[in-house]
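Tutorial, part two.
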Amino acid sequence: MKCDILTLAGLWNSGPQHWQTHWEQQHPCWTRVPHRDWNNPDRDEWVAELDAAIAHCEGRPILVAHSLACMLVAQWAQSCSTLKVAGAFLVAPSDVEAPSYPIDANGFKPIPLARLPFPSIVVASSNDEYVAPDRARAFAQAWGSKLVEIGPAGHINGGSGYGPWPEGFAMLDEFCRDLNP
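Running the prediction step on this input gives:
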């Protein structure tokens, strides 16, 4: 892949069986954006951490986000940062406005529904416990993202059997190629 990659783990960080962890192990030059408190993330702090990570990239990176980090990307996009990214690969966006969301949203509400100023893909599951299919579709439409629905895949994480996830990696690879013809 000929692009800088920043991975953005979701709530509780991505564990050892998560596809992000597998992909980072295969590509040691990829960087997981650190966060101070994975169990109780604060939007403003996390947006600042993402902005700092983007600033350290040589070029415009691709953001590879999972779960709550998809909302982080949308929040960062509206933060008035002068930095640029090449695109965002957004997997299983969490609906922080749903009553079933497991923690306090800590500033992530309301969910930004403005068009993202960069190309993006939303990958969604039909039985994700953190976002209803219609909400995932609404996020993708509002953000101007291509939507890829992969059927019943849970939260598309290690707990739902998405460890190495070669199909997802192929989607990301194609997205990178489309950005860098």
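The chain has a mean pLDDT of 93. In part three we will examine how such features are distributed along the chain.
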